[in-house]
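Researcher: Please translate sequence to structure tokens.
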Amino acid sequence: MAVNLSRRGFLQGLGASTLVLSTPSFVARAAAAVSDLAGLPIPDYSAWQDIYQTQWSWDKIAKGTHLINCWYQSHCAWDVYVKDGLVYREEQTAKYPQTNSDVPDFNPRGCQKGCAFSNRMYDATRVIHPLKRVGERGEGKWKRVSWDEALTDIADRYIDVTVNEGSDRTIWDIGPGMDLATSSAAVFRFSKFTRSVLLDMNTEIGDGHRGALETLGKISGERSADDFFYSDLILIWGSNPIYTQIPNAHFYTEARYNGTKIITISPDYNASATKSDLWVPVKPGTDAALAMGIARWLVEHDKIDRAFMAEQTDMPLLVRADTGKFLTEADMQASGSIHGFYLYDGATKRLMPAPRKNLNLGELQPDLEAITTVTVRDGSEVSVSTVFSLLKDSLQLYTLAHVSKVCGTGEKMIELMAQSVSNSKAMTNITSSSLNKYFHGNLIERAMILVFALTGNMGRHGAGYSAFPFLTPDGFEPFTLIPDMHSLEQFALQAHGMVEEKVAEGMTEEMALYDLTKLVFTTNSPFPQATCATLFWAVHGGVKDLHDNNWTPFLTKPMSDYVLDAVNSGDQPLLPPVGKTPRIIFHFVSNSLRRVRGGDILKEKLWPQLDLSVVLDMRMNTTAQHADYFLPCAAWYERNSFKWVTPLSPFLTATTAATEPLGSAKPDWEIILLLSKAIQKRAKERGIGTVKSPHGEDIALDKLYDHMSMNGAFGEKDEEKVAAAILQLSSNVGDITWEELKETGFARFTKPGGDSASLGNMTDFKEGETLVPHTHHVEKKVPWPTYTRRMQFYIDQDRYLEMGEALPRHKDAPKIGGNHPFMLTGGHPRESIHSTWRDNPLMLQLTRGEPYILICPLDAAGKGVEDGDLLRVFNDVGEFHVKAKLSPSLQPGQLLIYHAWEDYQFKKGTMRNVTPSPINPVELVGNTGTHLDPRFATGQPSTFDRDARVDVEKIEA
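Model: Translation complete:
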């Protein structure tokens, strides 16, 4: 017998919770409002079987996925079950095809967070009507307002700021809910037509993979998860995929049954280490030393692939001893290019230009260990050495004894790992972004890639280093950029012409597309306006005020000076410029006050200067509690869109509107189109037409909705039409239509496509074969997108030479936060992705239900701490209070707190209070004309929290 509970009654119960929300009692009060449902009629069940059987009846099944950046485990297809107008459960779709009979299929994909989303969308944190703040920011006092009232007020305040102070005073804080489909199209188009600023958050959240950029010229490149079955050695290095890649984990564990060996390298004995053949413990942040020690062993025992190194890397290129710079054509002849490099041909014993158009060496036989003298164009004699010769010299430091002392890893263990690497015929790694969050994470990644290059493990089935996995329909960019559908052909020709022009200048197509992505930081460009989120929070948010200290004694000036020099010189982008304060921030599914390292200072430095803080989200969170307006978004099962993916599971995945949005919540596309309509209406009523951006661009406020909607072709209710258009414009998902995608829920990608990040995979998608990144470089000899056009291990840029980082190396971590005994490490929790599920009751049941910090029992005993005690965690910049959890899996001197806890879940403070995240000066390099320059998603400074030093003391609860 069905439960006698109407959808209307359920919504009324939820709606009551949005009238007045008071923090910190918001969750309790909202839950009490929902509990009013207890007064509804009680169904007449005759037996427990009646209750059990009701879950197997439904009105319809829709296709759904979760539009959240769960990244490496991303994009799972779900069947969404609807009864009486409500989603009551979801189930994994198990219809993924098998690539071939040698490898496992992808079924089923999903995790416990996905299984709990139907609970999350109806729980007490959900907001379903627009709210306006009536108390002080953070006080938690709100009133319910109409959409018209909210949007009209926001529109007027937006117009005031744009007209009086400039378009770049309005910021779009883009969070992990970015889908690169219908929702993102609205935001990106708004930025394009208003010249408001998008925060590029990729490096700010620690996903920039700087070491891969420095070495490979890009960060993209990943295999499909079934390709791991062709590996004989998998390195789980700096990741914990049993926690963070639940849908992919079976590929790794099943590969062991196929004979694959798995080695986990991590400070703690984590869940992934338990599934490995060998666990190699390292002190936090010392991974570069371990990699360099392995590299020394490989070179010393001649277990290296010299042919691969000569062809694919910069190892044979010559470097001047006097300047530390590459020997270039400009050194040798008056009309020579600074981009022409030399090698020493062992066959002819002559200096020869290194090939640039492709990597094919032809008859050349580069001498990897050449050391000689050359006569440069001014007539002087200069000593030159190959990069490999310089590398061999630098490796002498990394003896087994030295590496063991640095890493805390036994010499025999290091040698055992080195032997495993040398014996491997197909070695790969499981990527994550954990190591990027160390101050010297770029050096760690460069050293890791060196191990792969020395052994030739790139661009083959089962073999290759993976950094940043990314794959998305390439119709998103044209839909975002074109003013109307009639101009699509014109745009295509223009874009093609821009690429062709750069190719004619000698770039590869990949290089040309990367070069174009720099235009998001360029004014008067056809692209949306973006800026580096790390620098935005550092300068405008005040985070840089935490950086000046003696934690990094190797610097020649205060850290804030490096930051301001980079910004003022234009080496790194920042909008609005220094001295011009942001006035409006739209938090687009972004919980920045929880996320930003050192972010507590934002409430002190930036928030008081904001005229308006608007949150677009579906649930109340830390940032929303300090907003002026909350605009409620439809949940993921209440909208139509699809999601960018990763090659690990190369299937475009859709979500469809299983039900109508709760209350008056709306899809993101509709909200932003309605905001555009309100701005256009108020601009006309106030007699305001076209205004100028600070850079002289025209902004037609009185035509904004017309431009956003392509003159009505895509209205606010046309979310499905937008999805269909983006799909139709995409070249890399075959000929599937939106209607077909709605039925199947997913479709396999057919090629990387024309999106710059997706093209970075540089491979062909072949029927019946697993995906392998970088085959175009290794098999087709297409140059790598670095300025030497090879995998580049030597960087002769001045800042790198100054910092002693021309070659990969280990550097001790700075004592960020002060000279304290513990290093605070972290990672993604198993029970949440970012903060989306962090306070969900079902997920809290899987842990202790509140924030906790892991501490080694030996350290706990020394501090008189027992399991469950309340600790004060502190350093030179702040403190927070949290419960202790004793864990023998941790090393002495290491603390670990999994991230994403909301501020209101702590006893006092948060872990952000002790993580000031100083910026590494080498990551501020720009304006070099090389692959090191900033572009969208990469080439910008990161934030670092893994090196924070703290102390602990037991306090009374």
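Researcher: Any highlights?
Model: The CA atoms of residues 831 and 843 lie 6 Å apart.
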